[in-house]
Amino acid sequence: MSGRLKLKAPANSASNLDDNVNERILSECHGIYTDKEKGLVQLAGDLGLPLLPPRKKITVMLMGNHSAGKSSFINWYVEEHIQRTGVAIETQGFTFITSGRKRESLTFLSSTRTYINFCLLLGVADYLSTEISSSRQKKFSLVTFIDTPGLVDGDMKYEFDVEKALIWLGDQVDLIFVFFDPMGQALCKRTLNIVEKLNEKNNEKLRFYLSKADEVPQENDRQRVMMQIVQELCKRPGLNKCGFDMPTIYIPDPAKPSRCLNQIDEVCQTIEKTINQTVQNTLNHLEQDAEVIAERIDVKLAEDR
To answer: Which stretches make up the G domain (predicted)?
Structure first.
């Protein structure tokens, strides 16, 4: 396999080279599993072993109250205006934003069986869309974002069980970003309830951010908001034992300079670390799966003799 992964270094930055190498590794590993004639999935199936191919990208789900800046963050990361943004509840379904060869908008998710089950089990097929962008900014070629419905309290009704949908997705994704908007419904009970349930099985995936932090003019006001959010989270069973880290982030705008500390680069670093860990995990699983298949073949040969 090592011979297949050798790359000719392109004339670009070290960061882009790392992206190309990671992309090639994940793509080639996926191909080793899914080759129709001699892939590991086919071979394992013939031997009675259940085996799933690895993903070629990591998946990041963004959730929070409406107008928390989820769509704005995606547009900033991709450096393309893909998602609508505004004060109104713009995102009322689930949008998968992923990279591809050309810009496309699909009304239904053309994806894996996993997400087809998502549609069938939770009745969200009519509320799914996919946005494909050819952007190569940051680490986008190795990331799929899931923009989720804005959460509100009160009489707001969703056409599907939004709580079950978010919890189900939380089990599938690699990272869960929770955005708290200090100027909006940062203490939305629906958001806190879902976070509490997600924490039961996926606490290692959860990351909390105080979004739109530049809209709070005074530092002491920002600290007060953060303390209120942390206090509310700590009241929830299971969350009160966690140490909360809540970086302050906002979309940088040269026309509106702010003295507020912007830790949005930490979000990018979290994504990059998860990509690197996924590459290592994929290689480890490939080695383990190959060994299991080899052992099963030896058993079958012995039985034949």
So the answer is: 59-205
* Best CA proximity match to 48, nearest among 292, 287, 283, 284: 292
CATH of the domain at 141: 3.40.50.300
Per the structure, the count of domains in the chain is: 1
d(CA 113, CA 155): 34
Q: Which residues form the domain of 216?
A: 58-271
pLDDT of residue 285: 92
pLDDT digits (tens, 9 = 90+) for 85-132: 654 454 578 888 988 887 777 765 544 455 555 555 566 777 788 888
- Report the alpha-carbon distance of residue 184 to residue 70 in Å, rounded: 13
74 lies in a domain? yes
Answer whether residue 135 is part of any domain: yes
Q: Which residues pair with 154 in a beta bridge?
A: none
* CB distance 61 to 173 below 8 Å: yes
Q: Is residue 293 part of a domain?
A: no
Q: What tens digit of pLDDT does each residue of 22-63 get?
A: 889 998 998 899 888 888 988 888 888 888 888 889 999 999
Question: Are the CB atoms for 41 and 53 separated by under 8 Å?
Answer: yes
**Partner residues linked to 151 by β-bridges:** 65
Top pLDDT among 183 and 11 is at 183
Per DSSP, the three-state class of 225 is helix
Q: What is the total residue count of the chain?
A: 305
CA-CA distance, 263 to 211, in Å (whole number)?
A: 10
Dihedral sign, Cα of residue 41, residue 44, residue 48, residue 51: negative
Domain annotation covers residue 30: no
Percent of the chain residues past pLDDT 70, beyond the cut: 80
Gap between the Cα atoms of 238 and 30, Å rounded? 36
